[in-house]
């Protein structure tokens, strides 16, 4: 039904369906709010996912998506006069006491009074365009998503809200060329308001349409914004009217990094290429430059911390590939998914999980804290995609068994899929750790200096133990290997200040090594915690090696270490350290790593090197020197009796 007298000629074509006693919709639109936290990231994900889903089947050309920004005169916005002088005014009268809604309406009013309005145009090519069934789902239906097959990425119909979330007018114009020819329509996620129709008061719904003769019927021509020539190639154009002015300044950079992070594998498989503002062309050959920018920028690295590791997997010429097998009980053929792994580059100990389109779904972690690796799991087969699509949440960033009609079976499938990944990685890379580190208990029978071990059969006897025959050349790598914390430091910098929290954290605190802090450190389940007693373990200021020389100490960025559990019940660990350069005036900091991956302090009660006792702080060990290129053993006793994962940082003079 039409709600307005057509007094503004061709501009009066907005149609807000309405009726009696409808529920009032304010400016708090749930389908838009979910994209507000990271609007440009959400836009890039949803747009490119939809374009990939619409790719021409069997084509060897990548789907091409173009993002372009420009300005148009406000008066050229479809239905401009009606919006400015009638619709917004009626909505303001309806919501005088709703602060959020009034703020939104005032912003729209100010924008329409300006001479020019920002537009972001997004176009795709080498796609089918919006077919009749896709058009109906996109324009007319809520929570519906019609795709060409069961392996497509979208499934909830919620992602179509992402473009509206970056529009200050909440207005998007769609134009597509598909089998049915050119179709265009405008959509506005507005608010409800009261109006008159045939003398009766009605309530409009929140969504309005700019279509043929003021209806929901599409127009059979392009909108022509920006002076474009009418399309001759199948595909879709999306015009975001009133592109959010707060996002304009850095939108090209944000879209670029988001696409690299979310569609790395799509670029790698040549399924996608993107052109941004007619300047930047993104394909896999450009990923190296983008990844290097991220590696060298601390702020970017915090936001996209796992991307370099995944990129390094694909760049490693010796990366390994494993086909998924043994899932026939779920209707999945062998080879419907591939696991790519590497232990080179910026390893992140995670696996990027993706489906057919190549968009990143999640990072699978908690695989191993002791093995160096990065991985990519690519589920490309039709059957596995059909299952994963059912289990995928609306944000497309996780899978859950509870979304299945058979949750128990779905839960088994997810566990089996994750187990395949974890066991494959452990079977592949544990061997390299076992080559360097002995099995549980074996280290008790070996000399402390690893460099003195010759690769031959040895019989070593230790007090209170039986003789053990060890063939070092052929250690059985399938036996239990020691839980080892391995780290090759490659990042870091100068650290001339106070060590991480120890005894001295609180309102009035000393340093972590002077033992005079007002409050205790955070508890990790050992015999320390919060308290207001002064510390008791601080070294004397006169002979504390670190305090005397800290101005010349630096964090050592190139050192290998192994932290081997000897007897967790008595808190005994063996720390093996191998620096690349000889070090003097060395301070070793220990942290405990919790299940969440967060660091916490750990208390050291004793440390020895070749039988000689070393100076200790709360969580620090001090040693005069370490030799280059040689494994050096330090025995450490902690104050707890819990099995711990330990991480080491080393500061010294070079």
Automatic annotation (TrEMBL):
Region of interest (Disordered), residue spans? 489-547
Task: List, as start-end ranges, the regions of compositional bias called Basic and acidic residues.
Answer: 489-498
Instruction: Name the chain's protein.
Output: Uncharacterized protein
This protein's species is Ligilactobacillus salivarius
Q: What is the lineage of its organism?
A: Bacteria, Bacillati, Bacillota, Bacilli, Lactobacillales
């Amino acid at each position: 039904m039409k709600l307005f007298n057509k007094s503004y000629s061709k501009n009066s074509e907005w149609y807000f369906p309405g009726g009696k006693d409808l529920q009032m919709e304010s400016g708090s639109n749930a389908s838009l709010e979910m994209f507000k936290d990271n609007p440009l990231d959400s836009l890039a994900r949803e747009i490119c996912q939809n374009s990939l889903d619409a790719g021409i089947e069997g084509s060897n050309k990548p789907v091409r998506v173009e993002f372009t920004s420009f300005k148009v005169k406000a008066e050229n916005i479809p239905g401009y006069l009606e919006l400015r002088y009638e619709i917004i005014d009626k909505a303001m009268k309806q919501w005088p006491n709703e602060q959020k809604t009034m703020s939104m309406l005032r912003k729209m009013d100010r924008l329409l009074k300006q001479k020019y309005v920002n537009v972001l145009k997004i176009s795709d090519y080498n796609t089918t365009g919006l077919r009749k069934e896709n058009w109906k789902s996109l324009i007319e239906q809520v929570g519906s998503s019609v795709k060409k097959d069961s392996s497509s990425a979208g499934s909830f119909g919620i992602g179509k809200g992402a473009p509206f979330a970056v529009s200050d007018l909440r207005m998007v114009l769609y134009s597509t060329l598909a089998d049915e020819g050119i179709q265009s329509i405008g959509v506005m996620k507005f608010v409800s308001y009261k109006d008159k129709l045939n003398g009766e008061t009605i309530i409009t719904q929140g969504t309005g349409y700019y279509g043929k003769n003021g209806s929901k019927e599409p127009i059979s021509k392009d909108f022509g914004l920006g002076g474009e020539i009418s399309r001759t190639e199948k595909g879709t154009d999306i015009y975001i009217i009133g592109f959010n002015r707060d996002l304009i300044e850095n939108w090209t950079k944000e879209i670029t990094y988001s696409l690299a992070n979310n569609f790395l594998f799509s670029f790698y498989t040549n399924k996608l290429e993107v052109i941004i503002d007619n300047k930047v062309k993104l394909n896999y050959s450009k990923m190296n430059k983008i990844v290097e920018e991220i590696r060298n920028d601390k702020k970017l690295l915090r936001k996209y911390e796992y991307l370099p590791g995944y990129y390094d997997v694909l760049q490693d010429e010796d990366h390994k590939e494993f086909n998924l097998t043994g899932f026939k009980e779920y209707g999945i053929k062998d080879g419907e998914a591939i696991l790519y792994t590497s232990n080179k580059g910026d390893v992140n100990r995670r696996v990027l999980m993706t489906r057919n389109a190549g968009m990143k779904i999640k990072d699978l972690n908690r695989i191993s804290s002791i093995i160096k690796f990065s991985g990519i799991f690519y589920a490309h087969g039709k059957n596995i995609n059909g299952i994963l699509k059912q289990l995928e949440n609306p944000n497309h960033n996780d899978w859950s068994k509870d979304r299945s009609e058979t949750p128990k079976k779905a839960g088994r499938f997810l566990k089996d899929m994750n187990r395949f990944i974890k066991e494959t990685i452990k079977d592949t890379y544990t061997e390299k750790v076992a080559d360097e580190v002995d099995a549980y208990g074996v280290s008790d029978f070996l000399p402390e200096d690893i460099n003195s071990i010759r690769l031959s059969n040895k019989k070593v006897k230790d007090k209170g133990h039986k003789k053990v025959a060890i063939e070092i050349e052929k250690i059985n790598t399938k036996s239990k290997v020691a839980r080892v914390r391995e780290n090759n430091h490659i990042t870091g910098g100068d650290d001339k200040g106070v060590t991480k929290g120890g005894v001295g954290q609180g309102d009035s605190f000393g340093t972590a090594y002077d033992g005079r802090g007002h409050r205790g450190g955070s508890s990790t389940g050992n015999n320390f915690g919060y308290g207001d007693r002064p510390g008791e373990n601080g070294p004397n200021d006169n002979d504390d090696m670190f305090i005397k020389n800290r101005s010349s100490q630096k964090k050592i960025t190139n050192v290998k270490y192994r932290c081997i559990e000897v007897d967790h019940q008595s808190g005994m660990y063996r720390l093996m350290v191998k620096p690349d350069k000889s070090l003097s005036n060395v301070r070793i900091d220990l942290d405990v790593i919790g299940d969440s991956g967060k660091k916490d302090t750990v208390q050291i009660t004793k440390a020895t090197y070749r039988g000689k006792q070393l100076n200790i702080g709360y969580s620090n060990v001090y040693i005069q020197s370490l030799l280059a290129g040689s494994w050096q053993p330090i025995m450490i006793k902690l104050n707890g009796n819990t099995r711990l994962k330990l991480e080491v940082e080393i500061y010294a003079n070079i």
